[in-house]
Amino acid sequence: MRKEVKKDNKMDAKSSWKALFKFYRRVKIPWVMLIIVFILSFGVKEAESRLVPYTSAIMTGAVTEGGWLAGYLVMTVLYGIIEGLQGSVNELTSRMTRRNVQHSVWRKLIHLPMSVYDKEDPQRFVSRVTQDTAGAYAALAVLIQFWSIVYGIYTNFAKMYKLYKSLSLIMLSAIPITILTSWACGKMQFTMERITNAAYAAITSFFGERLPNLLHIKTCRTEDEEYEKGVRASQEKYRADVRRENRFIFQGPIGSFSMYVNEIILLLVATAMVRAGTMKQVQMVNLYNYFMLFMSNTFMITAVWQLLKQAHGSCSTIARLSEMEDEKLEGGENVPAENQDIVFENVSFAYNEGADVLRDVSFTIPAGRVTAIVGENGSGKSTVIKLLERFADPDSGQIRLGDDRLDAVDLSQWRSHLGYLFQGDQMVKGTVRENLIYGLTREVTDGEIMECARLAQADGFINARP
């Protein structure tokens, strides 16, 4: 059983990578801003490297040399300007990308077939728009960061190699160690992010359902019971956070290991060479400073991989959602101008396999007449309406509109002919007028609105309000 679970997880990870790449192709990315961030990231690494001789001069007391102060001030200011610009543009690009991703996810959610929401809790999708999209820019940002890090590694290694070839070659041992630790930390990061996002979706779903129904909770006097349920939901989120932090504790030491080992080797060898007179102190200081930049960039590979896996875990669900087919609203036969009978022929339907709500049901709704569907709770009345609205398709049998199959009729046209008065409180935030004309595309007069309110016997209530 464990082997099967591991295999499923492995296949899920592979498929989620493909889904993630497809997802980014669908999203509007601010490429010009990304290119600017890319160029500025290289500028930051170059400025860091050019500052080394000046910081080495401070460490060796060689600050009195001609032109040192002016050069140091210019490079420091230049580094600060480039870093500040890079950070600002990067943050703006992040906000723009997240906004675009939210637009894309929201569009997908409102265009998915209702059958998706029958299988998954709709409340959980709230966090997919608000929470999961936060990590969408990370994958793009770390790719930019990766190449600037590679440039920083190359630049600082080249200067180390120029100072002392044999010793700098020893430092290359840090790269395979770092790759290994990056891989280990990245796997942990992917798992942590998925656990955290699932827990966040669950707690969002719970409180999103309870808070709008406080009146019902108070009426039924279930405050204590609902409080306990809320505590349990919060506890699940807490456990996920603890699991995440327990894994995170080990990432720092694992990632720092290679840096400390190579730093010790460098200092032991370099100080011995200085004592032996084969290396000057200023060379050792320069070598050490370049090494620290080299190692900090090498160490960043671990952080970059972790961020990439974090984005992978964060976006895996919304990437999967983006691959689902939209509900096809346009196309098909026009709705007949004259009224037609609606006929159910041997229709069967189940939300869950093996638990039929309707089984081999046949009846006719005659055109031009009022038809009432009466039955006990759970007998399938609402399911019949869902099938008429084409929120779902029959598992077997067919529904006809006159001589045509209902699923062959243009869906947008068909729904424009239907009215659906829900059992619950279906109100959108806004005025009474906005609620009454919700979904209409034509201009509506106040007289029409008041007539509708009168027919619904709501005019007295409405007129009594300010």
Describe this structure in words.
- The chain has 3 domains: 2-323, ABC transporter transmembrane region fold, CATH 1.20.1560; 342-416, 3-Layer(aba) Sandwich (Rossmann fold); 432-463, no CATH class.
- The termini are far apart.
- The protein is α+β, with helices and mostly antiparallel strands and 466 residues long.
- Strands 2-1-3-4 form a 4-stranded antiparallel β-sheet, covered by helices on one side.
- Mean pLDDT is 78; it is low at 1-13.
- It is elongated and about 105 Å long.
- It has helices spanning 2-26, 31-60, 68-111, 114-119, 125-130, 136-163, 165-170, 174-210, 214-219, 223-249, 251-276, 281-323, 381-389, 411-416, 432-436, 446-455, 459-463, and strands spanning 342-352, 355-365, 396-401, 404-405.
- It is built from 17 helices and 4 strands.
